[in-house]
Amino acid sequence: MAIKVYKPTTPARRRTSVLLSHDLDKVRPVKKLTRKRKQNAGRGNSGKITVRHRGGGAKRKIRAVDFKRDKFDIPAKVVTIEYDPGRNARIALLNYADGEKRYIIMPIGLKKGMTVVSSKKNFQLQVGNSFPLELIPPGTVVCSVEIEPSKGAKLARSAGGNAILQVIEGKYAQLKMPSGEFRLVPKTCLATIGQISNQDYRNIRWGKAGRTRHRGIRPTVRGKAMNPVDHPHGGGEGSNPIGLKKGPMNVYGKKALGVKTRRTGKLSDKLIIRRRKKRK
């Protein structure tokens, strides 16, 4: 995969780049494994906006990705490598020996024609295979990791994501996450060998607002540009500062910088050995 940079024929093209798709198969997705993407525009079940700057975007058909990998000891052949509009990683279509087809998130190095397997007893070090963490040797790069056994992968699922298995101690396996965080995961949780594909996604330059709107992301407006009724920073004339506030505040009037957002007393706090690195 490579990134194409356009010639600056227009002001928008000057800053635009796209990800080439030579690695994808030009086929229609399996109809039984697709569903419509419901557009909630950032609203929760009560109809109130819980996530700002969401809405619009192109119509999408989301692929049903198999995060559980619960067809054990049944070999599956990689049939196609496809694009999923619901995620930034590539997906691979597996054709199992019993005739069932499933999509999985594709790791780097997985190619058409290869055979992968998910097992709880027979370990084989190959990209795309899925095993419990207790069977995987320490130092192995893994992805699509479960937090709870048989609940499906939750960690290291985005483009270029991976975790490094450090050691197995007692009931838990120690993982180094992409953020630098060290955390414990039950050793019976499944993980896939390899690193998630499409690692160049983070280097795309979207170039203009229109491409971002197609992704379902609406504009973000500065608080200083609003009225006092709309934001704590609002009001004033010209380029006035944020007033007598001690520091930047969000739209709800709470401190915006240097405040921990993680809920205190979470059950998973005891499983985190070392927090992620702070951004500079």
From TrEMBL:
It comes from the Bacteria. Coiled coil: none annotated. Keywords: Ribonucleoprotein, Ribosomal protein, RNA-binding, rRNA-binding. Residues 42-118 form the Large ribosomal subunit protein uL2 RNA-binding domain. Residues 33-56, 222-248 are annotated as: Disordered. InterPro entries: NA-bd_OB-fold, Rib_uL2_dom2, Ribosomal_uL2, Ribosomal_uL2_bac/org-type, Ribosomal_uL2_C, Ribosomal_uL2_dom3, Ribosomal_uL2_RNA-bd_dom, Translation_prot_SH3-like_sf. GO terms for cellular component: large ribosomal subunit. Pfam families: Ribosomal_L2_C (PF03947), Ribosomal_L2_N (PF00181). GO terms for biological process: cytoplasmic translation. Residues 125-255 form the Large ribosomal subunit protein uL2 C-terminal domain. One of its GO terms (molecular function) is transferase activity. PANTHER family: LARGE RIBOSOMAL SUBUNIT PROTEIN UL2M, RIBOSOMAL PROTEIN L2. Part of the 50S ribosomal subunit. Forms a bridge to the 30S subunit in the 70S ribosome. One of the primary rRNA binding proteins. Required for association of the 30S and 50S subunits to form the 70S ribosome, for tRNA binding and peptide bond formation. It has been suggested to have peptidyltransferase activity; this is somewhat controversial. Makes several contacts with the 16S rRNA in the 70S ribosome. This is Large ribosomal subunit protein uL2. It comes from Candidatus Komeilibacteria bacterium CG10_big_fil_rev_8_21_14_0_10_41_13. The lineage of its organism: Bacteria, Candidatus Komeiliibacteriota. The gene is rplB.
